[in-house]
Structures are given as structure tokens and as C-alpha cells.
Amino acid sequence: MATINKTYEDGTVEVVDEQVAIDIMNLGEAQSFVIREIKVADINIFYHEDADTRAVATLQEWRDYRKALRNYVQAGAIVGSQPVRPT
Asked: Which pLDDT tens digit goes with each residue over 38-77?
């Protein structure tokens, strides 16, 4: 892998391993995905709890999905594969 060199206006230079930079981007994207999807899961759990006609999948599937989301990013690392939203 190559390195990325970034020079700032004050003359300092930052050298970052390309793979490290990719890993950091992927982690940020994964964290954003988790936050976004937990909101979706929460809404769908509320639908089930309120017997709303918009409820899809089952209450247990949504709870399992929410747990999988929480386990997907742990201690600053992506663990396993990205959870799939129930349908």
C-alpha cells in the first residue's frame, strides 16, 4: 500500500498509510450506517408495540436487527458483516 502525504499551510506534513486511511473511512461509514439504521429499527419496533398497520417483519426480527447493529461496530472496529434490514 502507498502512503498519503498531506502538507498543511503551517508547513507540517502528515503521512498516513493508505490502508489506515481506508479503514478509518470505512469505520466512519459503518458508524453512520449503524446510527441511521438503529433509528429505523426503533421506529419499526414502536410500530409493532402500537399495533400500527405500517409494521413490517416481526417484532423479534427488528429487535434482533437492532442487537446486530449494536454489535457491528465495537471498540472502534467493524466486527463481522453488515446486518441486513428485515423486510
From this structure: 999 999 999 999 999 999 999 999 999 999 999 999 998 9
- Cell representation of residue 63: 429487535
CB 65 within 8 A of CB 83: yes
Q: Extract the runs of DSSP E, i.e. beta strands, from the chain.
A: 3-7, 13-17, 73-74, 77-78
Query: What is the distance between the terminal CA atoms of the chain, rounded to a whole angstrom?
Result: 39
If one counts every other C-beta atom within 10 angstroms of the C-beta of residue 14, the result is 10
Residue 82 phi, psi dihedral angles, 5° rounding = -65, 130
Domain boundaries, the chain: 16-78
